[in-house]
Amino acid sequence: MAAGSKFLLLHLPDKEILRTIRFMGIYQKVSFSLISKRCKRLIQSLQVKAAFISVSINNDIRMFVALPGFNLQIYFENSTMRNEGQKKILGAPLYVSFHFTHRLERIGFKYSDWLDHFQTIFHCPSIDNIQFYYGSSEYDLDEIREVFGAIKKLYARDTGCYANNLRLFQKFSTIEKLNFNPNMFEGSKIPLSILQQNYDFLDIESYNNNATEMTLNELLVINSNRITIAKVRIPPQDLNKFIKLWIKGSSSRMEYLNIFRTDGFQYDRAVVMKGIKHSTEQIVELDVRRVSMNICRMDGTCATILFAVGWVQMLVFGFSLLSKECRKLAASLKIKSYTSIWIDNKITVVVRTRRREMLLDFYTEPNMYWGAGGKKKLTAPQSVLVHFIGKPIGNEKWAKNDFEMSDWLEHIYTVFNCFQLGSIKFGRGSHEFDIDDVKETFRIKDELLVAHTGCFEYNQMIFQRFQHVEQLCIENNMFRDSRIAQNVLVRNLTAINAGYHTEEPIVMTLNDLLANNIKTLLIKSVRISPKVLNKFIKLWMQGANPHMEYMELCYMDRSGVSLQSAVMKGIKHNVVIRPRSMIPFFKADGLDDITRVFGRIDIYRNDGIRATLDAGWDIFTMAVWFDHCVV
Amino acid sequence: MSVENAPVVDVDEAAIPVEKKMYYRFESNDKKEFRVSELAIQQSETLNRLVEAMGYTSEDVENKPAIAIENIDGKTLKLVFQWCEHHKGEAIPVDDGSVPKIVEIPEFDAKLMDIDNGLLFKLIWAADYLNIVQLLNVSCKKVANMAQGKTPAQLRRVYLLPSDEEDEAAKRAAQEAQDPRAREVEEEFEERKRQGGNSFF
């Protein structure tokens, strides 16, 4: 084909134009959309939809576009123009870059044009949130507001000027969600006018536990629906009065209040609940550090209060079990979560939200659930033990035995807006459970994590029953001979992630490497000789393992010297030295995120596909540059 | 009866009727003729339906005129049929309008498409007309690959993409071509304006 020749793309049939641009990478799609209105409409018609777009402002302006499985970062290098008041003017940015590596160009495009462009092509009509940080006081807030339009959430930090900080709240007074740091105000005193506003979500986050104090008056003027107050001192007497006044009808909008500190401070329950009528009928107290209480307002509205180290009041889950209405209310909070299952000699549902990780333990009662085959059956659990990770909160036990395991899952999915299990992890002791019951109850497609269950046969049964998972995470000791079973390697998996650095290494032979049919293979502790790697690379260059996209092996036979010469012996390769800013990005099926390829050795397969290798003294990586792996 | 005890019968292999492979004949718009196997034709939804509807026997194929494909030239059709023969019997992807997750261009296809862009353009049109989904996937993928690492300005040059102004001008020209009177009216209007007339009517 003649080099540099042109192709009349837009003269193809419409269907084939769209087919072609669908094949382009995201950077090419964005670049293409900038060429003309027609190109923009074509990209728009691909229906690539962003979950949200956010804007962050400090000395410069960045835009984040959350696409499915991929976050786009657009960086605007500001022009240095200033108006009479010495504020930066949002004219056309000097340049715009994509992940700091690729330039985007559109002559004459101002900020508002860029924003409008991204909102249009990614079908995201409004900005989800705007974040102000130190240095952002250089901008004219009126202009910022005009350019970025209606915002749902304001994330405010010290901009470098108290007066400007206050103006932020005036200019963005119509937002639904507010997150601010009290230390941004003079003397860390929050203006009452801000607390009086009605936000759906109000998050007050101090830098440290002793910098800010809030009084009863300040609590009472809060007029928002869901409130989180973090690392702020609130005297227990004020809390007591606040609850009493809530019972009498104040703070009637409040649906959820979460007050927490991270310094191990514990409220004296006797002081906080002094003179307050409460019941604990729904609660079984297990841990003296944590107590849950139900209180009732004069109009019949109920609330659950949880005391822990610090104080967390959470009206979400336990509350949601009280009635269908409570469940609806909890679901309406729209808390998004990622749910996974851990199985050892009990079954734990792990609910991970943005703020915390909650563990729900099922089948904890000994000598129950055992079926005829000597395995535990997943009949209705008698109780649930609830605890949290990373938060100084004790345990709680809910005695609710009219829910089957599937009912619990459905309830958790509803309340936490999660519709699919992310992963199942089988740990030691999990062989006690009937594998068919487990498979039937927890339908999983994405990721299976398997440690040695204590029974090698059971380990194998797990692989047999869960044939359709895409990714596998395994521990080294789960196979009898420290080798990954061939029947696992030959499966058409997206990824295997094996072992930990500290474990006994997995032995990989040339046959194991050649037999694997996996796109991404990560082994944290492997025993493999440089000769085997050398032969494998040679065979790959001749066409072996055609689907492999990425391999990372941390080998244990560390010689203290680089194995590069042994691994690359007799292999034609180029050593490419790239400046740091030119180190390429890479993505592969099975890798959680985009990664950078630091290797310097380029080799080529006989069909022209390139791979970049890194063969250091303790790690070997191989990134194959298929078109879809290029970022 | 066990297998060991079954009677042995000598079979005259020549007497077994062998199903003859059927080859259809097609003719391009520049009168070049091609013989294409029945299995290869299955890659093209359009041709497959056509030959099914015709219901040709082996004799018909030989005796009747070649099936004319009037809007594809011989050079392009040759590439299309080479591709179909090479990929005959392979599964045909469902074309639901979504981009296939991964499309790699096999070595054979890469060599076949090592052609100038004009011919590649015709190949895509032909594959579109004949509805050969996988050929469309690989050929469009090849065109998409031309965009790799290109800035918008470079993309504009590679794909000869018109600017908004050029699009507007082309649109106006198309409208005028559709209605020749429009141009005359416009010229008359301009002339009257030059003469100082206030009203066109």
Describe this structure in words.
Chain B: InterPro entries: SKP1, SKP1-like, SKP1-like_dim_sf, SKP1/BTB/POZ_sf, Skp1_comp_dimer, Skp1_comp_POZ. Chain B: Belongs to the SKP1 family. The complex is a heterodimer of chains A (631) and B (201). By secondary structure, chain A is an alpha/beta fold. Chain A has four domains: 38 residues; 128 residues; 113 residues, no CATH class; 246 residues, no CATH class. Chain A has a 17-stranded mixed sheet that branches. In chain A, strands 5-4-3-2-1-6-7-8-9-10-11 form an eleven-stranded mixed sheet, with helices on one face. In chain A, α2 crosses α3. The radius of gyration of chain A is 29 Å and the shape is globular. Chain B has 201 residues and is mainly α. Chain B has two domains: 144 residues, Potassium Channel Kv1.1, Chain A (2-Layer Sandwich), CATH 3.30.710; 31 residues. In chain B, 51% of the residues lie in helices and 6% in strands. In chain B, strands 2-1-3 form a three-stranded mixed sheet. Chain B starts with 22 loop residues before the first strand and ends in a 7-residue tail after the last helix. The interface between A and B is large, with 42 and 42 residues.
